[in-house]
Amino acid sequence: MSLNRRDFLGSAVGGTLLSLSGGSVGAAPIGTDRPNILMIIVDQMNLDAISAYREILKDPAYGCHWLNTPNLDYLVGNGTSFIESHSADPICCPARASVFTGRMSCEHGVFYNNIGIDADVPNLGQWLEREAGYKTVYCGKWHAGGAWNCPTISGVRKIPGFDILPVGSHYGVGRTLDYEVSTSTEAFVRNYKDPRPLFMVAGLLNPHDICFWHPVSSRGLITLDEDYYGLGEALPSLPPNQDVSFDETGITDRNKIDPNQWGDMQWKNYIHDYLRQIEILDRDVGRMLDAVRARDDNTVVIFTSDHGDGAGRHRRVGKWQPYESSVKVPLIIYGPGVRAGAVDQKHLVSGVDLFPTVCELAGAVSPQNMRGYSLVPLLRGTAMQEWRDHVYYSFQHTGRCIRTKKYKYVMRYKFSGQVSKPPSGPEVPDLPFVLKEGGAASRFVPGEGDRFEKEPNEFLFDIENDPWETRNLAGDPQYSTVLEAHEQLLRNWEAMLDIGTRHDRN
Amino acid sequence: MSINQFAGLRKIRRLVESYQRPVDKFDPSGSWSHQYDIYMIAHSNFVNLGTIRVSRKPSKNGARLELLTVRPTAEPNLQHFTQATLVCEGNLLASPRQWSVTTKIAASETAAPYFNSGMTKTSEFNNGQVCISADGKTMDKTIPLTEPYGCKFCMLDAVQRMPAEKGFVIPEFVFLDEYDQIRSGYRLEFRQNTSIQLKYETAMLSLFTMAGTGQIPASYWRDATGRLLFFVSGLEVYVLSEENGIPLGFYKEPDVFKQSAQLMKKEGE
Predict the structure, then answer these.
(1) Which of A104, A320, A387, B180 is most buried per CB count within 10 Å?
(2) Which domains can be identified in chain A, with CATH numbers?
(3) Which residue of B has its CA nearest to A289?
(4) A233 — contact with chain B (CB < 8 Å)?
């Protein structure tokens, strides 16, 4: 079983019940027909930016109406994809570490960018190599721990458990270097003849390049305030939730662009160029799909992103926010035995589900304490009695969310104090990065007066009726019962977590 | 006109104002070799990400292009190579009819690929479709390809012969990004001729812009002979750095973008 009993019981508290179909989860014996697995993980791509979703996400403000992604459309049309797919922690390193460990940020220790994964927590490469005899290869952006993007063949930037194709976004830009990743992956997949099944990861950086459209890094030269290129009607419409009235205290200001800085034309150009970058990554995906199709074998393809982008919603760019634009990520799985053309709008899924999913596909037992569940029953379309009724994610160090189908509950303790000098500790080698938000990287102690506000700021959104998150219902007495129920879900979930050595919880 | 009025060029103003054009005559329809430095703007820095060399030889119906792109990898002793040979039509877009592309991670252009990273794809256009094969044995796919069509790197050649005339536009064409992925909805137009200050001269340059599916809007800047000097698209910048093996001088330090931003700000004050 990929779930241990404590996980199962813990998640059952507070009305959540997970019941998986018999025999669909667990280890298949090694030596059976185990598939090759190609996982493509991109950076900062919104779930709604796939043209195949136009009929599902009908609001013209969604990205799907403003771009063409034929290769992702192919995956959607021939695989199973998930509309309720969530990042486990919407910023690069924590999200990626959760994908590659199946654990939450406070467990694997990567609760902020540029911190390494706790050495006691195995990654997917190590696990599949050891437990299932897979050949494991990594190409492109990793950034799941450590202050570097792309791995090297050996040394401190070698990813444990993987052989390395050392190309990609090591300078922090995806355009031109993502081509290295897609062609090298394409070649490797085409050339692969080893008798061992292959688990290969291709990490594309785009559409992360859009980060450099931010007013600070663009210095007024990248994001245009006019329709300079005569794009006209090709410029997208603006999201309906640019201006909201609720208090956003506690959510980072870094990615909020003031109306005095950017007007409508800058936002239109920003969104336009962001969607073009997704079309570019679609071409990289197409190249790798060509290799998979040429093999014509049992290769499974998994496509996902670490987090999304603000894309103008709430006047935000970038990630790291609890909003849907930042948290919802594409997740598509394609291959033999996977339902074709199934767009799952029902089941709440999370980045932490990928580890147990890959394990089950590979016929390996998952490690203990997985926080996600194998998606294989959903991919096969086998009988599912029930599925989880909420997902959890963390954000911005102290932020936590519970997302049910109807509501999203968000809480965050705003940092309020000062740290005079960087704390030292061998287990957190890149601590100065953490200090941007206020330090104390080795400890998370909500309410510890001089560092964090004692009371969290809370949001409650009715996602069903307010999908653009424009009304915070947290202070509305009508919703006090709903709020309490979600707070309880959060407490129950967090009580189950095995907090890593870098965190305390009170 | 001030360089700051041009969305592409103003990002590299510091470089442009230090740029020394080749002194030799140039015939874009003849035989020549151009090497471009590839830069990306990242974290406000101007980062060199390799080179692309385009060598052209005219033929009866068009030209043969040899291209070599060399990009860095995460390992100092390895690079990523893309070597391409294209037989192109003599039309406006220099549409490739047959092409072969080899990619690999390797220690040098002639070294064996590192760790199964090498492959060759060949493509041929016939009767409205392109057939792509890999490593000479697998007929991978056949895709409809509507004319007119161009190719990202053939444009480094083709744009040099386009008429710099008011009203010139290719309103819709198909595009091969890199060499194998096809997208429609491209548009290229001549925008204007304008005087731009280079290091030792004020040169009359011609601006063409291009947009399309999967294309961050782009600017091509050529001189009066047709010679393509700069290509700018979003964060991506190509600068002509060698002609026929002769290197060209220009400021290429990592602060090009920051200095250009300062120059714009200063002019605005």
Answers:
(1) A104
(2) 29-211+259-388 (3.40.720.10), 391-496 (3.30.1120)
(3) B140
(4) no
Q: Chain B residue closest to A208 (CA)? A: B42
Q: Contact at 8 Å (CB) between A159 and A136?
A: no
Sort out which chain A residues have CB atoms less than 8 A from B180's CB and list them: 287, 290
Residues of B in contact with A66 (CB under 8 A): none
Nearest to A485 by CA among A413, A408, A414, A412: A408
**For residue A23, what are the contacts with CB-CB under 8 A and spacing of at least 6?**
none
Is B141–A175 a contact, with Cβ atoms under 8 angstroms apart? Answer: no
Residue A46: name the closest of A402, A404, A327 by CA: A327
ipTM above 0.90, yes or no: yes
What CA–CA distance (Å, rounded) separates B54 from B238?
12
- A28 reaches B (C-beta below 8 A): no
Distances from the Cα of A197 to the Cα of A40, A58, A189, A299, angstroms = 17, 40, 11, 9
Integer Cα distance of A112 and A110 in angstroms: 5
CB–CB of B159/B170 below 8 Å?
Answer: no
Neighbours of A22 (CB within 10 A): 11
Q: Say how many CB pairs under 8 Å bridge A and B.
A: 160
Q: What is the pLDDT of residues A17-67, one digit of tens each?
A: 333 332 233 334 334 589 999 999 999 999 999 999 999 999 999 999 999
Q: Is the dihedral of CA A490, A495, A496, A501 positive or negative?
A: positive
Number of domains chain B is built from: 1
Cβ contact A217–B214 (<8 Å):
no
Between CA A206 and CA A216, with CA A210 as vertex, the angle to 5 degrees is: 145
Determine contact, residues B148/B197, Cβ cutoff 8 Å.
no
Which residue range forms the structural domain that includes residue B122? 3-268
Which pLDDT tens digit goes with each residue over A3-29?
Answer: 333 333 333 322 333 333 322 333 343
Give the strand pairing for A331-334 and A80-82: antiparallel
Got the DSSP string for A420-473? Answer: SS----TT-TTHHHHTTTT--TT---TT-TTTB-SS-EEEEEETTT-TT-----
